[in-house]
Amino acid sequence: MQVRMIGATDVGRRRKSNQDSLYYDELSNFGIVADGIGGRKGGEIASSLAVNGLRKAFMNSDRIRHEEVGPFLVSAVDKMNSEILERGRKEQEILGMGTTLNCLMFVGEKLHIAHVGDSRTYLYYKKHLFQLTLDHSVGNFLERGWLPKSAVQPGAKEGALVRALGLGERIDVDIYEIALKPGQLFLTCSDGLTGMVEDRRIAQIITENLDQFESLPKLLIDAANAAGGRDNITVLLSHVRG
Amino acid sequence: MAKLYLVRRNLEVFSGPMTLAEMKDAYKRMQFGLQDEVAGHCGPWVTFEQLDRIKKQYPEVARIVHEDMIAGWNISSDSEGKLINEDTKRLAIKSMNGIRLALVFLVIAVLAFVAAIYMANTAKNAVKAKDQLESAVRPQDLQNYLDRNDSAGFDRYVQKHAGELTAQVNQRQAPDEAWLPYLRLYAFSHDGQFSGLDPKYLRGNAAASTPVDCSLRMWRRRWRSSSADWNDMLAGRRLVRAHWARLIAWDPYWIKRREHKGWIGEQNYYVACLGMAEKALTEVGNDLAKSMPIEERDRLGYARLKARLAWLQAAMGTATAAVPSEEAKVLAADNSSVGLWTCFEAARDFEALSRCRRSMTGGSNLGAASPLLAYSEERYGWNMLRLASATRGNLPADLVGQLLQQGEKMNPEDHFTRFDYRPEARLFVSLARAGLPTEKAIEKAQSEFPTVRLSH
């Protein structure tokens, strides 16, 4: 399967700096989106540490077999989590920094996604849009009974993150797997897009502009900015071709 | 264009997108189960079991869930509307005056009822407040029940104070180690969960390679949704990346060598998880037997899975008796991947271990191209090391040579079960590469990894 990839990142209309990080390599079919949290400098450092660390781990790895992808992603994310914590301990002003992460690896006929936090990966197929990743937010965890109500601090927002790199020594990574079909389009993005543009509108933009694949990231970013652009916006699109 | 749906299995693997008809077909082919989730275009994920939510979000899916899926698992649904008898309806219209009179009496009765409830509640609250003042739950109380072997009393105590216990734990009013062993004991002697407690709390961080949720409910889901994959894993066609497949690949001796803090007696998370998995598999097997002949169910791999779980329980020293004879027969005849691993683990000397290995390359149904062949070689190596450390004497030179040769194939981290074999690898280095006597090699590796019982 051939996978075309294209991505873009934008500071948005309100923030002064871009704490999102993006990396993708079409030849290796590998892509990462990370959204930094915890102060201006800290967020930037955390997301770029995560993206660069994973990129290096990927580049330095031997050819990864299908069944090794999950363990590879888990241990690479685990290592990045330790590095972010370690860096925070060394530099007091960035202590407490963290980042979300969505990492895509296309291996053989499958896509593997490592997911932590509330950046998302969607599948678009034949005018249908499906959110693949589950946001690691207080609201979702309460709804699923994974978090007792008593453990949530009073006043905590539903969208507050339960999991992110840098939040604690232990990191639980969700690993998803989906078989590839020609025509599938995977959209990976930070919450700067999904917080501003509704899913149905995202689907509509893709449907109307699928023939201009190269300009799609910009069109989605423009839509987020037109809706207020309250956060940094990052979009990575991966199109599966026959 | 037909509406498409995506199915998410075990929160990990997606099937689809597919049409309704394809979904129905996929269900029949056991590609997913009722515990799995479905999503439509821009819609939320809803588990098939939640019929009311399915009806609300995806009414068109609800019909096939009701007709094909739930019927298949013999689950009843009470969400259908009640039928109204037409005669009763007509009669009711004729007696409207009677109804008005009855309404007056009804209002009086309701008022009396509310007053009675209010008074009863006031009295109950007073008793409750008194109870709360008097009840200060203490771990020692639970220990006392255990010391007296009074498991019924233990259960009653936990049930009575469940609210207070979860509050103490969740609000960190007591150190984790104070309550955790008792809550774990209670949870895993029932259904593997404790209402109001995060499953991760019950698991802890030490057993990070195991599923977070080892409750009976989750294991039922895992077994039901995976039955189509059992044979692929058992026959060595592929390593199925799922919790159930990792569970059957667990190395019981690796688990026995580890220290398990926060558990009572010989319990640990692996043992507890295995117990729930075994119980759930039996239930799922019984369900399957209702819809297909026993032989067909066993062809799915059920009997071999049961046998493997029985072996793991016996090897981890948790079963009340040795492997039951029925399961022992299945294990003896099994030359699949799981059969081979059991053969390695059951070997008491090098000769027996070698025989198992010879069957792997010769008589086993693991073909030369099986992805499980290399993995099974690794497992052979770890079992060789297990026997080497058990001899405690000096190893014969030919065995050292063999160990060295085998060591090249052993990865200190099991990429499949995610078990960390670094302490064992250290022992290997001291024993085979540095050529230390067994006793000394164990001592050396043990000093580096004091919590792992390498001589076990």
General description of the model:
The complex is a heterodimer of chains A (242) and B (456). With 242 residues, chain A is of the alpha+beta class. Chain A has a single domain (2-133, 168-241), classed as PPM-type phosphatase domain (Phosphatase 2c, domain 1). Chain A is built from six helices and eleven strands. Chain A has helices at 40-60, 69-90, 138-143, 191-194, 199-209, 216-226; strands at 2-10, 20-25, 30-37, 98-99, 101-107, 110-116, 120-125, 128-131, 174-179, 185-189, 233-241. In chain A, the strands form two sheets. In chain A, strands 2, 3, 4, 5, 6 and 9 form a six-stranded antiparallel β-sheet that branches. In chain A, strand 2 and strand 3 (30-37) form a beta hairpin. The model of chain A has no long low-confidence stretch (mean pLDDT 89). Chain B is mostly helical. Among the domains of chain B are: 5-72; 139-203, no CATH class; 212-334, no CATH class. Chain B has helices spanning 20-28, 51-57, 59-72, 86-94, 96-134, 139-147, 151-160, 162-170, 176-188, 199-203, 216-226, 230-234, 243-248, 252-257, 269-291, 294-299, 302-315, 325-333, 337-346, 350-361, 371-391, 397-407, 422-433, 438-448; strands spanning 5-9, 13-18, 37-39, 46-47. Chain B has a four-stranded antiparallel β-sheet. The longest helix of chain B is centred in the N-terminal third of the chain and has 39 residues, at 96-134. Chain B is globular. Residues 71-96 and 126-135 of chain B have low confidence and may be disordered. The A-B interface holds A 65, 67-68, 70-71, 74-75, 123, 125-132, 134, 146-148, 150-151, 170, 172, 174-179, 199-200, 203 and B 1, 3-4, 6, 8, 11-15, 17, 39-42, 45, 166-167, 170-171, 196-199, 205, 208, 212, 238-239, 241, 371, 413, 415-416, 418. Strand 9 of chain A pairs parallel with strand 2 of chain B, so a sheet runs across the interface.
